[in-house]
Amino acid sequence: MGYFFSLYCSWKIFISLVNIVFDRVGRKDPVTKGMEIAVHWLGFDIDVQFWSQHISFFLVGCIILTSIRGFILTLTRFFYAVSSSKSSNIIVLVLAQLMGMYFVSMVMLMRMNMPLEYRTIITQVLGDLQFHFYHRWFDVIFLVSALTTMGILYLAHKQVNTSDKTESFYEPKW
């Protein structure tokens, strides 16, 4: 699953860049688009509508669950760092509010990974929002955070490699 999500993240970075440059919002979810390409170019004989719906829901579920899990772990670390016996109730209320807003924003922004008929249901539930505005900013923030994370990981990895070489050069190995 790690390799699949690495490819998916790379694809999402590329598509976010294309969406920002050409000021567009995707019309199809990535699973349906990928399956249509596979059927057209590789000649697979499968029901694209049926399988793309099930795979899309599984993919969106995995993304939302892992994202919320990471968010909860980060909030738990923050809670342990700042909490005291007097402030714990207020912090729990603030964190519950943050968690609710995070969940609603994830559902709203992940609606693009769902088939069209389910996208319209979420649109009806959330009301008359300007989804183009939110999807554009989601792409911008996602691209900036992805590139920043890649840069930080590159520098951290480069620093570890440099310190390993420095230690092995100056210190004798016994």
TrEMBL record:
<feature type="transmembrane region" description="Helical">
    <location>
        <begin position="55"/>
        <end position="78"/>
    </location>
</feature>
<keyword id="KW-1133">Transmembrane helix</keyword>
<dbReference type="GO" id="GO:0032580">
    <property type="term" value="C:Golgi cisterna membrane"/>
</dbReference>
<protein>
    <recommendedName>
        <fullName>Abscisic acid G-protein coupled receptor-like domain-containing protein</fullName>
    </recommendedName>
</protein>
<dbReference type="InterPro" id="IPR025969">
    <property type="entry name" value="ABA_GPCR_dom"/>
</dbReference>
<keyword id="KW-0472">Membrane</keyword>
<dbReference type="Pfam" id="PF12430">
    <property type="entry name" value="ABA_GPCR"/>
</dbReference>
<dbReference type="GO" id="GO:0008308">
    <property type="term" value="F:voltage-gated monoatomic anion channel activity"/>
</dbReference>
<keyword id="KW-0812">Transmembrane</keyword>
<feature type="domain" description="Abscisic acid G-protein coupled receptor-like">
    <location>
        <begin position="2"/>
        <end position="158"/>
    </location>
</feature>
<feature type="transmembrane region" description="Helical">
    <location>
        <begin position="90"/>
        <end position="110"/>
    </location>
</feature>
<feature type="transmembrane region" description="Helical">
    <location>
        <begin position="137"/>
        <end position="156"/>
    </location>
</feature>
<dbReference type="GO" id="GO:0051452">
    <property type="term" value="P:intracellular pH reduction"/>
</dbReference>
<dbReference type="InterPro" id="IPR015672">
    <property type="entry name" value="GPHR/GTG"/>
</dbReference>
